[in-house]
Design goal:
about 0% strand, about 90% helix, mainly alpha, 5 helices, Helix Hairpins, globular, about 120 residues
Length: about 120
Amino acid sequence: MIKPRKLMSSFPYALDGLYLAVKLDQNVRFHLIVSVIVLLFSFYFKITVIEFLFVLLAIFFVLISEMVNTAIEEMTNLITREHHENAKVAKDIAAGAVLLSVIFSVVIGVIIFIPRVLSLLS
């Protein structure tokens, strides 16, 4: 059974997590800045609702993967400061996940925005 009071008490922890991700990770801040720029382009070019949903999906996919990457890096650093191959593997795989999400987002951006930019230039 869902306990509303317990559910509501977990939100401050989630908000702390968002705050810490922005505070601690320059990549999260970079992705947030790029996200705002992409959203401004979305409104400027008046993209369709479906296109906007894809843009939002791409934005959230990158931010979520970057936050998971940051959590893995922080946890790995907590466990060991020494070089361990397993720690490197965990960090590299998490970074690879971020790279895939960024590639996905760039593909979405190219498909949606390049035709509009080209028509604006012609």
